[in-house]
Amino acid sequence: MTDIEIGGSDIFSDGMVRLYRQRTDLPFTHENAICFKAEISSPMRIRQTVTKLLREESKAADEHPFAWNPRFGYVTASPYMCGTGLEISAMFHLEGLHLIGDLPMALNALNGMRMNAYGCDGDGLKDVAHIFRIVNAQALGLEELELAARIRQIFSDIVKQESNARIRLVEEFPRVFEDAIERSLAVLRSCRLLSNLELVDIISPLKLAASINFLDNFTREEASEIMMSRIGQPPPSVPNTYEEQKELDRKDAALADKANRRFRNVRLNDFAKGYL
After folding, report:
1. At a CB cut-off of 8 Å and minimum separation 6, what does 261 contact?
2. Which residues pair with 215 in a beta bridge?
3. Of the residues 118, 143, 171, the one at which a domain ends
4. How far is CA 127 from each of CA 83, 133, 192, rounded to the nearest angstrom?
5. Is residue 1 part of a domain?
6. Are 196 and 216 in contact (CB under 8 A)?
7. How far is residue 79's CA from residue 140's CA, in Å, rounded to a whole number?
8. 24 and 138: one domain?
9. How far is it, in rounded angstroms, from Cα 248 to Cα 193?
10. Parallel, antiparallel, or unpaired for β 68-69 and 73-74?
11. Which of 7, 85, 94, 258 has an alpha carbon 20 to 30 Å from 212's alpha carbon atom?
12. Residues 155 and 187 in one domain
């Protein structure tokens, strides 16, 4: 059994709890919805955070009543938020599950739990770097704290699945892991054109490797900064003219040159070679 430590913060990030309410004294539109929100640093903070937001909501309700129906609960301009009005989401880096081949099964299981997983390509449609925003698909049928407890368990299970996948990757699929790392480094050292989304995708296995201290001259903090600064940016529009294509190529060439220089001396360290 490996003694490599897997940190949950390397898997779970950007957690957010939102509690939506619709005032009855204003037109029933998305723009007039009130959103109580707070960040969460781990799944274990979900229930505590929801309790805090409910206290804030209760104080606000004393001044402005919120739309409520005895059958559907709290009613909002967004039908899927009716009931509790509660939306809980977080970003998950699931590179380990991808590399051992279990990612499709894990994502399919979320559908049966009334959870949605969105890619991070700027449109939320494409799987980039195996980073997903996972959020509850509906808010109806449970009390707020019951839903919070349910999602906390789901998020904790995802972190556990990915942690186990990373351990299995090192123990059972070391050649697969080494190949993913060396392929990424080879591209970053020698590419001539590189887009933002390509960079994020290519760095994904390096972020995993850096998180378990397998790399020299590259840290998980730098990997996270590079990836998160580019995730969510809209993809460049399709060039319609020769000049637009040249400009796009110029930007991609500049990013490739920067990557060539930055990753020239990044490599697997002796600690990694003890496992791979």
Report:
1. none
2. 268
3. 171
4. 30, 10, 24
5. no
6. no
7. 10
8. yes
9. 10
10. antiparallel
11. 258
12. no
